[in-house]
Every structure is written in C-alpha cells, then in structure tokens.
Design a protein that fits this description.
The chain is an alpha/beta fold. It has one domain: HUPs (Rossmann fold, 3-Layer(aba) Sandwich). The protein is built from seven helices and five strands. The chain has a five-stranded parallel beta sheet, sandwiched between helices. Helix 1 crosses helix 6 and helix 6 packs across helix 7. The protein is globular. The mean pLDDT is about 95.
Length: about 230
C-alpha cells in the first residue's frame, strides 16, 4: 500500500509518518519550502524521512510570501509567551490556505502514484486555533478531492485522508511518538529559531511542544535559547 505523507519535520507530522509506517504503508513524504521564516524545518523533514526509510521524499517550492498575511511568511513579529489556544481568534501565525494548498499538492501526487491514501498530522485539541486543522475541513477536502480527480470520477481510486492525531492532545502525541520510535532530536517545531537552529522556547509552537513533553513525562532533547 502506498501513501503520501505530508511532512514538515515537526513533532506532529513526524509522528503521523510513524503511524503510516507502522500500519504497513509504503510512504512518499512531501514537504514544502513555502517562504517560511523557519525553513530550517525542511532539514528536519529530510532527517525524519531518512529515519523512517520513506520510498521517496520530495520538497516542493512555492512562495506564500507573495501573499504574506502571517508572521511565518511576512515581516510580522512572531508572538511570544501568549499561547491563545484559539480562545482569542485565529493567531497571526496562521498561514492563509496553507493546508488547503499542501493537500492539493498531495492529492495531485497521490493521483499520479495511483495511491488512495494521504496522511496529515493535523490536531483538533492541542493546536493554535487554525481553521484548516479542524475535522470538518478535512472531511470537506476529502469530498472535494474525489470530485476533482480523474481517478475519483472514474471510480478507480477514492482518496482517503488519514488524520491519526486528530483527537490526541500534545502529551498523547509525545507518548505515541515514543512508542513509534520517533527520534525527537531529529524534529523541529519552533516558529522563530536563531541562526544556529535553536528553538526560541516562547512561540506558540514551542510552548505547545514543551507542554506536551512535560505532561507526558518525557525529556525533550532539543536545544532552546532560554
């Protein structure tokens, strides 16, 4: 069985890839250089892909800085020490249409590979309030994909989008990752790392990661500036 796995190099996508490998899929990892300020994550994705012995790892280059609108793709400061968990609106680290774009590329590659399965590490519990991480978005995209592809219209391949982390909190993801053999030291989560790749320890992504490791009782091996 083949599967296209979206892989950012972060904790969630790395764990999601581990689930796909555990479940017997031959994995084709797909990462994006989209103009993100933390593009060091692409190096992490390559390390994780090698660790899990994927069949192929592709990095697609697109320029979401052309639109901006996010602290990750525009000259906007990344908020620090202000984990909102979606309670005060969608945070500025949300990248407009990012998962829609990523899933569209994954859909195209899956159709070429003639594989019906896509894995994405979205999470609906411990996340920063991004609308494109919600189960209703995933269900809507899956429905659209089966209307939009030649394989779907001809009934040859019905696309399935797997979200194995959707109902796990961050500590649950850390525990699952440990069971799957994810090497935490290969991953990267920080939105605002320094030039040496050290995590800031204060952005939403770092705070969620640290919270998850703390609650899971597992040591995070990454280096943090503070």
């Amino acid at each position: 069985m083949k599967a296209v796995c979206l892989l950012s190099g972060g904790l969630d996508s790395s764990t999601c890839l581990g689930v796909a490998r555990r479940d017997g899929f031959e994995c084709y990892a797909l990462s994006f250089d989209y103009g993100q300020r933390h593009r060091i994550e692409i190096e992490a994705a390559a390390r994780v892909a090698k660790h899990f012995n994927v069949r192929e790892h592709r990095v697609v280059r697109i320029d979401l800085r052309a639109f901006g609108g996010s602290a990750l793709t525009a000259d906007i400061a990344v908020p620090k020490d202000s984990l909102e968990q979606g309670t005060q609106g969608i945070p500025i680290t949300y990248v407009p249409a990012r998962n829609t774009i990523f899933l569209s590329y994954a859909m195209a590659w899956a159709e070429v590979l003639e594989c019906p399965d896509i894995f994405i590490g979205v999470n609906a519990i411990d996340y920063s309030g991004y609308p494109d991480c919600r189960p209703e978005f995933i269900a809507a995209f899956e429905h659209m994909a089966n209307l939009a592809t030649k394989a779907g219209v001809e009934g040859r391949t019905l696309l399935r989008i797997h979200t194995p982390l959707a109902q796990l909190d961050k500590s649950g993801i850390v525990k699952l990752a440990a069971e799957l053999g994810v090497d935490f030291g290969l991953t990267h989560s920080c939105y605002d790392p320094d030039q040496d790749g050290r995590s800031c320890g204060h952005c939403d992504s770092c705070l969620l990661r640290l919270k998850g490791f703390r609650e899971a009782g597992v040591r995070d091996p990454l280096s943090y500036r503070t």
